[in-house]
Structures are given as structure tokens and as C-alpha cells.
Amino acid sequence: MKKWGFSLLAAFALVLGLAGCGHKSSASPAKTIRVGSMASDVEIWQHIAKSKEAKAAGLKLKVVSFDDGVQLNQSTLDGDVDVNAFQSYAYFEAFNKQSKNGKEVALGTTYLEPMGIYSNKHHSLKAIPDGATVIVANDAANQARGLELLAKAGLISLPKDFNSFGKISDIKANPHHLKFKAVQDNTIPRMLKDADYGLLANTVAYQAHLNVLTDSLYHERVDQSTRKNVNILATAAKNKDNKQYRKLIKVYHQPGIQKWLKQKFGGTKVDVQKPISYLEN
């Protein structure tokens, strides 16, 4: 009987031990979130990936660098990337409208990188030479954004229904007879030596060692007119309710992250904490 009792106890202990081992193995580590990004945003998310803020939120990130926005968005839809961090809401809308392979959803806002009007020849916009040459981006979102900035500066006027798909041919009035040249945006800085003015997205300006707040003649501000230009985090529509992905927005806006951003980029990535509904209205 004693032998049977010891055997039963040993067997019971073994079962408990195996159960304990099974319980431990079922606790899987946090899934690595693949964040696709471009240009200076790659550096931002590499910093966030190593930050104490990401660790405190239980986030494990892998940053994947891209050179082309359309490719990055498509990789997000294909699942090669979980979340992307590079595009304005206007670019996001334009992509979704043209995409035939699925749609993205916006998870939240990050910043506004002001677009600016730059010149190597002129020191202000007060005396615009008649027939001045203006270099703008040839992609739809940035071209429309640049034209809206020129309109806000009082250099041209646009129709009331002008939107993020607007183009040069939509200009309603051009009192200074400005001559427009549309080129790939990353070539604009070196073309400023020959043109009168150039419209630069801040990512391109930053790469050319220009600070939009101090080097541009005129630039965007955070207001209703620029809400479509606010940058976002986006993911495939099927991931819209993923709580881990949405944590990225909260981490991005943490004071420690924002302090680093301000120091690193000279204040040119203006923090914007708004609901997506603000961009949609």
C-alpha cells in the first residue's frame, strides 16, 4: 500500500510538472510589428523601436526602409509590412482611390511637415517677377499641395472644388504669369539655382539641409486648410482594430519621443494629435 501511495503521489507530481511546463510554453512573446517607412521617418522609427517608451508599451518593432511610397503601401496591403509611417492623409486618400488590390485605413495622426516656398534668387514674395519660373512636384498629392500653398500666399487662385487631385491646369487665375515646371520632388533642390521658386515637401528640404521654419519664404501652418497634409500611420483595412498597432500612435506622442524629435529635426515635424475624423471633415 505504501508503495502504491508513493507511486500515485509521484505520478500526480509528474502531471502537475508537465502541466506547468505546458502553461509556460503557451505564453508566446509579443509579436514583432514590422513598420515600413521612408527617408527621415526611418530614423524616427528606429529611435522609437529602441526607446523605453516602446518597451513600456510592450512593443517590439522592426523597421523596414523603402524608397517608393506606392511600393510601401502595396507591401502593407500584401502583409509584408504591418504598419507604414511616411504618408500624408492626402497621399493616403489618393492611393486608396487608385488602388485595385485593397484599401488601407488610417490608425492615427503623427505630425505636419510644413511644405515651403524656397528661392535661391529672391528674398521674399513681395516682388514676384512677371513670368517667374516655379518648380513643383510631379506627383499628384504634392503638386496639389504646392498649388494650394501658392494660393494661400496670394500668388494664384484656385477653383472652390480644388482638392488633393488638383493639378496645374486647374489654376483659375495666374496674375503673375507664373511658369510651372513639374519634376520629381527630390530633384527640386538642385534646380533652385535656375528657377525663381521651388515648392519643397519638408522631407526633401531636410535632405537638402534646409529648415522650412527658417529657410523658406513662406510655409504651411497647422490649421483647417492643411489638415489633409497631416501625416498618419496606416495599415491594411483588415487590421483596423488591432490594439497593438494602435499603441504605436500613443508611443509616438509620448513627451520623451517628442523632445527627441524636436531636437533632431529642428521643430520641423510639428506634433499633431487629432482624431482621424478631423482629417476627414
UniProtKB/TrEMBL annotation:
Membrane topology (UniProt): Lipid-anchor
Pfam families: Lipoprotein_9 (PF03180)
Extent of the signal sequence: 1-19
Entry keyword set: Lipoprotein, Membrane, Palmitate, Signal
Localization: Membrane
Keyword Protein biosynthesis included in the entry's annotation: no
Gene3D superfamilies, sorted: Periplasmic binding protein-like II
Main localization (coarse): membrane
Domain of life: Bacteria
Presence of keyword Membrane: yes
Family: Belongs to the NlpA lipoprotein family.
PANTHER family in UniProt: D-METHIONINE-BINDING LIPOPROTEIN METQ, D-METHIONINE-BINDING LIPOPROTEIN METQ-RELATED
The protein's name: MetQ/NlpA family ABC transporter substrate-binding protein
Organism name: Lacticaseibacillus baoqingensis
Organism lineage string: Bacteria, Bacillati, Bacillota, Bacilli, Lactobacillales
